[in-house]
Design a protein that fits this description.
Length: 434
């Protein structure tokens, strides 16, 4: 089989993580729908349980179909290893639980998915982990938030729903100056448009449910280990640098070297928390990866057309997308995301909350649902759904307005997308602004 490192990204999306099945010759990755795997001997079983040899024991921890997806994602993101999870939220939880303990703190972008904000601010404190949310553009504020208890800097490549662009090279420099890893959620960009590890990120996470899968049929997540962070430094990360009783005193940083983080995430996290990806969903996500670059090109092309359309309308109060010249991060996006800044567009419909709701209810092609990254165009009102539990002050700080509509642009014929948007705006004019 051709070595992945010698292949280009579009080819990796098809070939990384698998060749012909050695048992049957099947060219597609088979679905290994099994709970567990037979051992050749008691010695082999003991070695597998002690993490002394690679292999599969139980599908909660690893599975050949899931492994193929993990290897492909690691290759696409430029990491040394990946761990797949049951969802994107499970990937975020696994990343944090692998390296943090009670008493530790996180500094995170405030310009992120509402579900992530709730997890960081409402759930984690019950387990002794606190988070300070900061404006990801305010690098001085990030520096000021750092103290001896902060162990992780977290951001999204593209904020949700404001599409703020994270200056990953600068954020990586800040994190490393304070001896901590930078964790980047790359869901909205995908490795087709951004590879955060190349810019200094240490861990990359995805909700693979979105563009990776791309068809709205499978829930999944993944975290990718860059393999460059020194977990032994300063003794700040004992879960990786000190003996672990759960595996007979094994020290992950010593045993696994560059892939220590991924090994602990699997060896403890999947084993004990159980948020594993199913083989069936791994198969669906592999199918999605095979057309990812083709879909992303069409997503970006259609998004550019939607931006031009919205910019020409007097009934649109504002447009938020890094490719739009009015966006505060337009220049940064041109630098870091030259091939496109994703296919989510947020905009305000003149007339406030009622106008935003009327727009969504009058879309006929765009589906009104809580997802992004589908082949189909999707629409939602963030202030009343994805970010509703945050309260007025938090919404204002995150730039989520009452009139805001979030669109995830699909790969339909763009003329049909534009026609649907135009018709919905006409209906708003009749119903809200007679």
């Amino acid at each position: 089989m051709v070595q992945p490192r010698s292949l280009r990204p579009d080819t990796l999306a098809l070939h990384a993580g698998g060749g012909p099945d050695p048992a049957t010759g099947a060219r597609a990755v088979p679905i290994y729908q099994t709970t567990s795997f037979c051992f050749e001997s008691t010695d082999e079983a003991a070695a597998l349980f002690d993490l002394q040899t690679p292999g599969h024991v139980y599908s909660r921890i690893s599975n050949p179909t899931v492994s193929a997806f993990e290897e492909r994602m690691a290759a696409l993101e430029g990491g040394v290893a990946a761990v797949a999870t049951a969802s994107g939220q499970a990937a975020l939880h696994l990343a944090i639980a692998t390296i943090l303990s009670a008493g530790d703190r996180i500094v995170a972008s405030r310009n992120i998915y509402g579900g992530t904000c709730r997890f960081l601010k409402l759930t984690l404190p019950r387990f002794g982990i606190e988070t300070e949310l900061v404006d990801i553009r305010d690098h001085a504020a990030i520096e000021a938030a750092m103290d001896g208890r902060v162990k992780l800097l977290l951001t999204e490549t593209l904020g949700n729903p404001g599409l703020e662009v994270a200056d990953i090279p600068v954020l990586a420099a800040i994190a490393h100056r304070h001896h901590m890893p930078l964790v980047v959620d790359n869901t909205f960009a995908t490795p087709c448009l951004m590879r955060p590890i190349e810019h200094g990120a240490d861990i990359v996470i995805h909700s693979a449910t979105k563009w990776i899968g791309g068809h709205g049929v499978a829930i999944g997540g993944v975290l990718v280990d860059a393999g460059r962070f020194d977990w032994r430094q300063d003794g700040r990360y004992p879960t990786l640098s000190e003996p672990y009783e759960g595996h007979a005193g094994l020290v992950f940083a010593d045993m696994f070297g560059p892939s220590a983080f991924a090994a602990r995430a699997r060896g403890e996290g999947l084993r004990d928390f159980g948020a594993c990806l199913s083989p069936q969903n791994a198969f669906y996500l592999l199918q999605g990866l095979e057309t990812l670059s083709l879909r992303m090109a069409r997503h970006v092309e259609n998004t550019d057309a939607v931006l031009e359309f919205l910019s020409s309308r007097d009934d649109i109060a504002y447009v938020l997308h890094p490719r739009h010249s009015s966006h505060p991060d337009h220049a940064l996006a041109r630098k870091l995301l030259p091939d496109g800044a994703g296919s989510v567009v947020s905009f305000g419909v003149r007339g406030g909350r009622r106008a935003g709701a009327a727009f969504i209810e009058n879309c006929r092609l765009a589906s009104h649902l809580a997802n992004v990254g589908d082949t189909r165009t999707l629409a939602i009102h963030p202030a009343s759904t994805t970010h509703a539990q945050l309260g007025p002050e938090a919404l204002a700080a995150m730039g989520v307005h009452e009139d805001m509509v979030r669109l995830s642009i699909g790969i339909e014929d763009v003329a049909d997308i534009l026609e649907d948007l135009a018709n919905a705006l006409k209906s708003v004019s009749r119903e809200v602004r007679p």
